[in-house]
Every structure is written in structure tokens, then in C-alpha cells.
Amino acid sequence: MPQTTTSGRAVKAVIPAAGLATRFLPATKAVPKELLPVVDRPVLQYIVEEAAAAGITDVLLVTGRGKTAMVDHFDRRPDLEQRLAEKGDDERLAAVKRPSELAAIHSIRQGEALGLGHAVSFAESHVGGGAFAVLLGDEFMDDATLLNEMLDLQARTGGIVIALLEVGKDEVSRYGICSVSRAEGNAVEITGMVEKPSPEDAPSNLAIIGRYILPFEIFDALRRIGPGSGGEIQLTDAMALMLKEGAPVHGIVYGGVRYDTGMPLGYLQTVVELACQRADIGPAFRQWLVEFVGKEL
Ligand code: UTP
Fold this sequence. Notes:
Elements: E1 12-16, E2 37-38, E3 41-42, H1 43-53, E4 58-63, H2 68-72, H3 78-87, H4 90-101, E5 104-109, H5 116-121, H6 124-127, E6 132-135, E7 139-141, H7 145-157, E8 160-166, E9 176-184, E10 187-195, E11 206-214, H8 218-224, H9 235-244, E12 249-253, E13 258-260, H10 264-277, H11 282-296
Parallel strand pairs: 1-4, 1-6, 4-5, 8-12
Antiparallel strand pairs: 2-3, 6-11, 7-13, 8-11, 9-10, 9-11, 10-12
Helix pairs in contact: 3-4, 8-9, 10-11
The protein binds uridine 5'-triphosphate.
């Protein structure tokens, strides 16, 4: 399998999904947060669809204890497919097959949840060489334009490309925050990054969100950093090290919809938005929602 397209764009993606998901307990005690349904598809399927729409053909899921159902979701189910075919239920048959047709899905186990950077480091031998995308399995983005632009920019610069979101001053301490210099359209050159700063210390309001295109050298940087914020091996620290050593680091400021499905509020917002957009249940759901909200206020 080639590591890039002929134009040099990465074709492999890594989805770290081995975290403990404490913000969504007790739902996530036995069920991975990535498998919580948004209407009728698990969150993770939307993420893999986003990757596939941006030209990714190979996805590595980094999983952990109790997370094997995640891989099963992307497998074939011949028994189910046969039953649906016999019943002539073509729509459901296509829906059941779809996850297995999006990309080649692989998995590896992290073993111990020692941080996002630690999870990414498990992808080294699968990636094999060249750049690759990282998509967090609990962040929903409503279209693949962002990832597309990021892949193009990385193919041109050869460095790190990260997705950025403008956040409120009171939110900066929940994110990695970047200082930036030159801007061209929605692309910016990054000059520094700091993990979870206080509002007074934050160099900007541009937060790092869950989409990254990383060069292969990130694996070496991950080996050279120690535990960071929260005692975890932080991906931000490895990127900051590469930046300090002269690697080009760019960001694309995202202007679309993004939800953190790893906590109840963000998850519910995703469900409501996507339910409203659906051609089948959308009209009835919207009508009910308007009436319900009107009654509650
Ligand atoms: P989060 O910061 O959301 O952590 O990780 P978490 O453990 O999943 O959830 P909370 O904060 O306890 O509720 C960001 C992403 O990195 C993955 C997570 O699965 C999530 O997609 N991750 C994090 C790993 O794969 N391994 C880790 O050791 C840590």
C-alpha cells in the first residue's frame, strides 16, 4: 500500500480511541464512547466517513480494553447481510455493508492509557513512513473540507498541520493553544504552542482541535519527550519539540461545526443537529423539537 498519493497527500489515518472516557461515565463503563449512536450510526462511523471523503484509504484504530466492538462495526456480517438480502431490504443491506466499504480498517491495542501521544506512538510500524492523519474518535466535524485542506497543505509544506478553532477566553485552559504569525486565508504559521494555559498566559484564543496531519518524524519526537500535563505523554509536547527544532508547523482555522461527543452536552448537540438534517426523520423531529422547546420555556 503506498504511503501517499502521487501528489504527496497522506492516505493513512490513525484514530486514537483508547482513552478512559471518564467525562461520559457511567455510559462508557462497558461501551466505548466512539460507539454511542448518533441517530443510527456510531460516532466513529462519521469520523471514518469524514476520513474517506478526504481521500484516506487506510485507517488504524488505536483501541484498548473493552473496545473490540469498535473493530467489529467495520467488519462484514454475512449472516445479517444474507437475511436482509432475502427480505429484499436493500436500504438496510447497504447500510450494514457501508462501514466495511469505507476504508481498510486495522487495529492495535494501546494496553495502558498513558496519553494521546502515547496512543499515536503505537501507529509507527503501521504507518511505515511518510505523513499520516490523526483524527480524534470523539470529535465530530460536519464536513471533510477541513481535512482535505489540511492534507493539501501538508503535502506542500512537509511539516505538521493542525486544525485550530477560535475559542472564548474562559475556554483556553481546556485546550492546547497556539501563537501564530503570518496568515494566508484560513491558514496560519504557528510559532508556539502551550498545553492548557491559564487565560492570562494564553498566547491567543486559537485552540488545537482533533485533526492533525503529522510527518513520520513525530514518532522520534514522541520517544524524546517525557510525561507532560496530567502526567500523560502529550502529542502537543512532541509537536512543540519539532517546532522548536525548526519543523514547519501550520494551522487551518476551522469555521464549521464541531462537537465534542466525548461528553453529554456535545453528544446531545450532535444528535439533535444530525437528526434535524435527516431527510427521513428530520421534518417530524424538528416539529416535535420546536413544540417541546416552546413548552419548556
Ligand atoms: P480525551 O482527552 O478525550 O481523554 O482524549 P479520554 O480518556 O478519551 O476521555 P476523558 O477526558 O477521560 O473523558 C482525546 C482522544 O485521545 C484518545 C481518546 O480515546 C480520545 O479520542 N486517547 C487518550 C487514547 O487513545 N489513549 C490515551 O491514553 C488517551
